[in-house]
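[STRUCTURE TOKENS]
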Amino acid sequence: MTMATHDKDVTRALQGLEDGSSSVRLRAALTIGTAPDPRCVDKLVERCAIEPDFSVREMLTWALTRHAPDLTLPGLLGEVRSERAQARSQALHTLSKIGDRRAWPAITRELLSDADDEVARSAWRAAVVLVPEEERTELADVLATQLGRGGRETRLSLSRALIALGEVILPTLGAATAKGAPAARQHAIATERLLHDPDAAFEFAIEEAKRVVALGTPGQEGQ
């Protein structure tokens, strides 16, 4: 392929990212990811913030992972501070896929407790990928402040994030079980049960946790 032909392909793909058809945008992102070019990075990041189609957003993220982190991190780290929730969420999602721990300082307490559930969930997933070993316990303590939040999907996402940290979460879950609000206690108990039995259904763990909370703290049942 000549340089002139490649330049035309890049121009066509960049234009395709703004096409009214999601299938055209999907192909454009695939093309860029297949033949990475630094000139496309800014447009990929920009498009992530506004792309309405989930499949296209996933392809945009994939295309970004195909470029060198030195090229993608600056733009993505800027997006996590955006006022647009989708920009924050998709940037965090992409950072979790890239897995470069230089991004860790950008995962702030504010993002981990973001008012938007999608942003918070993306932040939780990114955090457990990027966190240094020596900060895992502190991260568990911050994540525990979100126990009991939201509906099923949000709670399951938080449980999975906590479980990904391993047994360092046990003291944190114990504290939440002992002193948390009822919803947080239920969520903490269910998360610990899933940690010990990964094959257990989340709904079953929650129902069991509700029963435990209703009867009293673990160890008090039947007294």
The first helix runs from residue 3 to 16. The radius of gyration is 21 Å.
